[in-house]
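tool=predict chain=A
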Amino acid sequence: MSLRYSNIVKRVLFALVAVPVVIACISWSLWSYFLLFLFVAVSTMLEFYRLADLSGIRPNKFLGIGGAILTYVLVFMHASGQLAGNYLYLLCPVVALVFPTELHKKGPIPFTNIAYTLLGIVYVGGPFVLLHMIAFATGTYRYEMVIGILLTLWANDTGAYLVGTSVGKRRLFERISPQKSWEGALGGATMTLVVSYTIAHYFSIIDLAGWLGIGGITVIAGTYGDLVESMLKRSLKIKDSGRALPGHGGWLDRFDSFLLTIPFIVVFVKLLS
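tool=predict ok
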């Protein structure tokens, strides 16, 4: 069995288990949605800080993850109408504390550690927080929006992977990611727009133009998200972010497109609502 075929089999088997679980958690209730993405956010941040540690950087992962969790919880409570917006000001001291905590360490690169602590909160934790603004854009929980966005992300990744590994020849951004191809990007874009068109017939919570707009954002921002994560790994001199997810690598490998796509979609959705 070739390595590529073996990896495809692992991806398919993992998806057959994970996708129904994810969709069930999102559609079951707002609390199962809350717990699902809290778990994913923490797992992804732990992986991010582990990669930094392997490269000799020492971010304050406890403060970073704690700050991200607090942000996630407060924004969820506010977006769902259970907490006044004034409580969001509690986040300001968390950011400020990142700086003085470095005074008690003896490392040679304190501001690099500070930068990576904040990067973990903003780059990794931030998109999971912004997802609440999409899920509760109209004041009530809309699981259809979350599922629809994930379906477009999965379609883009799957289409790019299948086409890229089969017929990909022209490198998309060889300096950062030698495996990415223009053919793969086109395959991902085609599958994403087809899935977006299909979603519009089942989730009429927004119209066809809205779903196609989300699909277009996913294609562009998702591709850049993949490249940005590759740039991160290259800068840290690490090939794979992890092996937590069979056939997909680590949490960052799986959610790299998500991290850069959500900030753009939240603006798009807010403008629509």
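Strands lie at 171-173, 177-181. The first strand starts at residue 171 and ends at 173.
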